[in-house]
Every structure is written in structure tokens, then in C-alpha cells.
Write a structure and sequence with these properties.
Elements lengths: L1 H14 L6 H9 L2 E6 L6 H17 L4 E2 L7 E17 L5 E16 L2 E14 L8 H16 L1
Parallel strand pairs: 1-2, 1-3
Antiparallel strand pairs: 3-4, 4-5
Helix pairs in contact: 3-4
Length: about 150
């Protein structure tokens, strides 16, 4: 009797927890292939390119999806950057900022078989800088890339 109870408990533990990763639900909702694009702004096109790289990487690695051309898939995702804000988080003893947080908001249009849905997502990424330094383009691009990936999670 104890053996059957132990066996039943073990099977129940492994089969009934119900955990499924995000990629399972994303594939169920979006399908296995997707066309992804980012709307670029003429005032700052480099941010859009970085955001597109982050989106494609997240779709391939985190959601295990295949990126396809627009005519070969029924699902399209079009992102546009809402805003990016750099917030000082920590100061040193002399009053210089040494830790920032980049907050990125994205607007996503997902079109599945002609039906369009709009979403707004946001992501944040904290990064350290040297005291009394200027945010370089590379630091800014890294912050956009990482906060974009977190927004897509």
C-alpha cells in the first residue's frame, strides 16, 4: 500500500504541476513562424535598428520561433518605440550619478490572420556609469537593447 501511495504521489507531483514555459503559450497564440518589423523614426533610426535586433533575438531564443518573410506567415508583429527614459537611481558621495535605469515603452501591433490587436509593454534595465561621465552612445544602445528584451519577456 505504501509503495502505491509513493508511486501515485510521485506521478502526481511531476504531471500535475501544470507549469509550461512562456514559449509554449507564445507558440500557441502566435504560431511557429512570425514576421517581425520595427517602425523606424527618422529623427533617431539607430534606436529602431537596435530594438529590431533585440526583438529578433528574443523571438528566436526565448520564444523559440522562426522568423519568416511577410508573405510566408499568417502572423505579423510590428513594434514601435513609445518612449525611452533614463532615470538616475544612485548617487555617490559627491552627488554624481553612478547608476541609471533605462525605462523603455513599446507599442506592439500583432496581426494574426487579418485580426489586429494592440499591446503596450515596457521594460527596464539598470546600468552603472563612472561618476561625472556622459552617457555614451554605446551605453545608451546597450540599455535600449537590454530593456527591449525585458519588455518582450
Amino acid at each position: 500500500m505504501k509503495k502505491w501511495l509513493l508511486l501515485f504521489s510521485t506521478l502526481l507531483l511531476f504531471n500535475a504541476c501544470g507549469y509550461k514555459p512562456n514559449s509554449y503559450y507564445a507558440k500557441k497564440y502566435l504560431g511557429h513562424t512570425i514576421y517581425a518589423d520595427v517602425k523606424l523614426f527618422l529623427s533617431d533610426p539607430s534606436n529602431g535598428i537596435i530594438l529590431k535586433d533585440a526583438m529578433l533575438k528574443a523571438l528566436r531564443t526565448r520564444f523559440d520561433m522562426r522568423i519568416s518573410s511577410e508573405d510566408k506567415t499568417k502572423t505579423r508583429m510590428i513594434l514601435s518605440m513609445g518612449s525611452i527614459v533614463y532615470i538616475p537611481m544612485q548617487y555617490n558621495n559627491n552627488g554624481y550619478v553612478i547608476l541609471y535605469q533605462a525605462k523603455l515603452s513599446l507599442n506592439a501591433d500583432i496581426i494574426i490572420k487579418g485580426r489586429k490587436q494592440k499591446f503596450s509593454v515596457s521594460g527596464a534595465y539598470e546600468f552603472a556609469v563612472e561618476p561625472n561621465s556622459v552617457l555614451t552612445d554605446q551605453v545608451r544602445f546597450d540599455a535600449i537593447f537590454n530593456s527591449g528584451q525585458k519588455a518582450l519577456d
